[in-house]
């Protein structure tokens, strides 16, 4: 079968790889001139299936909303007056009770753990090196933040996920570069989680996919998708392109292609920022990935560089760099690893992902024949990419996926 994958971010490229492995003829259509040029370009690099969780969690909406009036905040809201945004917020709040949190978190972890296993297999099979670093440390500045994380701690214990609750002294022993002057109530160490360089991984998977015959059509923007006798026909600039099936791995712009097909999903744009700079003092730099749970800002090691990334602007997808968001990144960088590098000289970047109110992505067939989606991965798409790609390739190939896909397909929004 000939399958066209629209979008060459980490999700589209992973999907193309597994489709080719399943024996399909695959074409990837991408408007940029390379892979991983949008959300997949500057992400934090955290691959943390153990702690992956929906934003909709007990106590979280109230805690995040309380930050809105502060100068340094993990959250900003845009276009709140828009009916679609209000509807999204209402659904998000409805998903924030304990029962829904547990269901949604289990769904996200199912795909993320599967993804981690596949990445390990890919790594061994093809000797991939994408600057992966083992271990993930979460930091809680105050007792209140620790209390808020109790549901997450309980979940880890209940599901036997390896984790160590740390005192401040334990956390400093694990990460000797941590600034002793920044208040720290405690930490959580997840030894089986890791971090890595998402665009580097995507480029390596592209090379493997190309070696299996996948064609990449860069500089090609799909404007419309229509059903045809054969399957689907896409309008790309001034030409048409036909295929038996199409996969939308289109990140932020998915709604523009889905709406004319009568497909409507409650997708909200979430814009985040990153700052990347070269390490000048290796003894003072993080050993592995660290997350400031109070500001929801990650500090990751990428070879000889450090990336500080996070903050979220709901409802925004512009490329504008908001100074207060950059200030939050700089504050967190200087608070924890002040001597590791000069954060003021960092390369700043922003990217947008799409999030559904309950948290898990939608992977599978839509109600329009031959049109499939792999979208809505929110702020954890890199951690779910390989698993999402393999699951969708299995669905398209009429094979039973290796994991239960209940709650991960578009069916939950029909
Ligand atoms: C600052 C930041 C930090 C993050 N940190 C993490 C993290 O630590 N861990 C984690 O797991 N996730 C993280 N994420 C989320 C993760 O980066 C995304 O979920 C993931 O990259 C989404 O991949 P994607 O392929 O769906 O989207 P994208 O990378 O945006 O790719 C979509 C592609 O589709 C193309 N496209 C769209 N429309 C068309 C069209 N009409 N025609 C042709 N091409 C089209 C675009 O050009 C783009 O290349 C972070 C995100 C950001 C912004």
Quick rundown:
This protein is of the alpha/beta class and 414 residues long. The chain has helices spanning 10-21, 60-66, 83-94, 98-126, 143-148, 150-158, 168-174, 198-211, 254-258, 323-336, 381-396; strands at residues 2-6, 25-29, 46-47, 75-77, 133-140, 164-166, 186-195, 215-217, 222-227, 232-236, 239-243, 245-248, 268-278, 289-292, 297-302, 305-314, 347-355, 362-365, 371-375.
Overview of the structural elements:
The protein has 414 residues and is an alpha/beta fold. The chain folds into two domains: 2-40 and 200-263 and 359-413, FAD/NAD(P)-binding domain; 49-96 and 131-194 and 267-355, D-Amino Acid Oxidase, Chain A, domain 2, CATH 3.30.9.10. It has eleven helices and 19 strands. It has helices at residues 10-21, 60-66, 83-94, 98-126, 143-148, 150-158, 168-174, 198-211, 254-258, 323-336, 381-396, and strands spanning 2-6, 25-29, 46-47, 75-77, 133-140, 164-166, 186-195, 215-217, 222-227, 232-236, 239-243, 245-248, 268-278, 289-292, 297-302, 305-314, 347-355, 362-365, 371-375. The strands form three sheets. Strands 3, 4, 5, 6, 7, 13, 14, 15, 16 and 17 form a ten-stranded mixed sheet that branches. A six-stranded mixed sheet has the order 8-2-1-12-19-18, covered by helices on one side. The two termini are 27 Å apart. The mean pLDDT is 94. The structure holds flavin-adenine dinucleotide. The site of flavin-adenine dinucleotide has 41 residues, from helix 1, strand 13, strand 17 and helix 11.
